Fold this protein.
Amino acid sequence: MKRGFTPSLVVSPHTHLRLPRRLPLPGQVLPEKGESVTADQVVARAARPGRLSIVHATSRLGLDPADLDKVLRVQVGDSVEEGDLLAEVVGLWGLFRGQCKSPVTGQIEYASNTTGHVGIRTPPESIEVRAFIDGVIQERLGKEGVIVQGLGALIQGIYGLGGERRGILCLADKTSLEEWHEEKERILVFPKGLDDRDLPRLLGATHVAALLVAGLCSATLKILRDPKQWAHAVFPPTVILTDGFGELHMDHRILRILEDLMGHIASVDGTTQIRAGVVRPQVFVSRPTPAQGNERVPSRPAGSLSVGCKVRILAPPDFAVQGTVVELPEEPRLIETGSFVRVATVKLDPNRIRVVPRANLEVLADASG
């Protein structure tokens, strides 16, 4: 069978998700392989060295660097608080004093007679990585972290902004503004996009963790990601576009799954990488048992473009239109731009046939193993 590879978009009511959870530096991995974990459970921990603050002690006191030892009032290894005395010069008959104080809390790391500088290391910063999804530790990655495998509904989006957030899924047009202010993080779903009436009340809401929107224009996206626009939020919410940019309606497969999951706690990550090593923004809701009574297994590998698979077109004039691949010609063909590229013949509804460059197609993977 003829096959090619193209980016895949997973939208599944019940599938496996293997999620790497890594520390930015070596640390301590807590759970063992095969252990069950919850989304909020810490799976790895590390201590990042504190910041080194350099104090120009002799310059402040008007001395030569070689005289630092004579005026230093602390030793290497001593702990100091912000405002503590580091060095002091006493004038003639004690009539005046020059003092150099610590600008930070930390530990004296060095004192140099060559430069006249005192180095103070601030306390280490604790870094914790949580599982983010309910699941089982499938693998330990040495001192770096773990791979968590979870079972549930997975929806990958086209584009996202913001990091990891968790909250209760709510359909925005059926949720009152008062509920948006409740002390529970919420993930608001906008199937028909945002209009001028939604934006003001949204920016005044509290406890909004993320927004799932079919499509947005760049101007609205910029407003939503500006912390100054939000009345009460410490961070602006994560935003995920499920279908693309512009005024779009949410794909019926995505909306059907989300409607079935309203009221459930979802894990949302807006991280997006569109260069090599594609990273998709995604929404995951743990479901230990299949929604339809049995777990679906993919008939082809993720990203595999083959005859019979469902695809979506990513370029005009049929942007976001879905269809089925009916042919994968082996030889490159000349397209309107004057380039010779590999193409696919796609059957669209109702019974339209289009020849589309493979680079302008996205595989709609219903499940992944």
Observations:
- The CA atoms of residues 204 and 231 lie 5 Å apart.
- Helices lie at 57-61, 68-71, 177-180, 198-203, 218-224, 252-260.
- Confidence is low (pLDDT under 50) at residues 293-302.
